[in-house]
């Protein structure tokens, strides 16, 4: 499941950026896409993060 996160990010990123013309908006949208992927990864690995590697 975690392998799909970067694939989805790289697929959705260009699609979501296309309507914007400003470089600032494109950068903001891509940053949000990757941040949401980061939060999803934290959610998926919450058990490991809570208990540590032990």
Topology overview:
Elements: H1 4-17, H2 23-44, H3 46-51
Major sheet description: none
| Total number of strands | 0
Question: Whole-number average pLDDT?
Answer: 89
Total DSSP helices? 3
| Shape by Cα distribution | elongated
Unreliable residue runs = none
Tell me the series of helices and strands, N- to C-terminal.
HHH
Indicate the percent of residues in helices.
over 70%
The class by helix and strand makeup works out as: mainly alpha
Strand content: under 5%
Cα distance spanning the termini: 22 Å
Cα Rg: 14 Å
Q: What is the number of domains? A: 1
Write a structural description.
By secondary structure, this protein is mainly α. Helices cover 78% and strands 0% of the residues. The protein has one domain. The mean pLDDT is 89. The longest helix has 22 residues, at 23-44.
In short:
This protein has 54 residues and is mainly α. It is 78% helix and 0% strand.
Which terms would index this structure?
single chain; 54 residues; mainly alpha; elongated
